[in-house]
Design a protein that fits this description.
Blueprint lengths: L6 E10 L2 E7 L7 E3 L2 E3 L6 H13 L2 E13 L4 E12 L16 E7 L1 H5 L3 E2 L1 H8 L23
Parallel strand pairs: 1-6, 3-8
Antiparallel strand pairs: 1-2, 1-4, 2-3, 2-7, 5-6
Length: 156
């Protein structure tokens, strides 16, 4: 029997006019922090669909999802996070909400920040912030196949 080993979360990295979009989280059990918008992938979604939904919910932006720029794994939580470079297709950035968390708002602010500003803020993941500030945002190719058999269609 197939058993799920990890949950998957997707986050969007948008660079526009030299600024990067981040959202501020305020949880009752830890200090506020900034991160890239996104969230968990639902069972019936592709990674791109999940990130497009999350970006609309949290920022009001319709985005084109491009390639992976960073990954991180939380072992204790069994969570794998994939960070995708995104391009804005339409909309104006505005603070949205996190419908998965009822009660007081979790998302409390939205900001376009320069790479230098990100370095002085509690933005996570720190390694990704340092990569952005160093101008070293390498894209990792992300390919979508619907069935494994599609692999046999590629020539060497």
């Amino acid at each position: 029997m197939f058993q799920k080993t990890h949950y998957v979360s997707v986050r969007g990295v948008i660079v526009e006019n030299g600024k990067i979009l981040v959202v501020k989280h305020a949880h009752s059990n830890r200090p506020p922090f900034w991160c890239f918008p996104g969230g968990r992938v639902e069972d019936d979604e592709t990674l791109s669909q999940a990130l497009q939904r999350e970006m609309i919910e949290e920022t009001g932006l319709k985005v084109k999802v491009e390639n992976v720029v960073y990954t991180q794994e939380f072992v204790q939580e069994r969570l794998l996070e994939l960070f995708f470079l995104c391009k804005i297709e339409s909309g104006k950035a505005k603070l949205g909400s996190d419908p998965d968390n009822p009660g007081p708002p979790i998302l409390v602010d939205l900001l376009w920040a320069s790479p230098e500003e990100l370095l002085s803020m509690p933005v996570y993941p720190r390694n990704l912030v340092h990569m952005i500030a160093a101008g070293n945002l390498q894209q990792i190719n992300h390919q979508v196949l619907y069935v494994k058999e599609e692999l046999s269609n590629f020539a060497d």
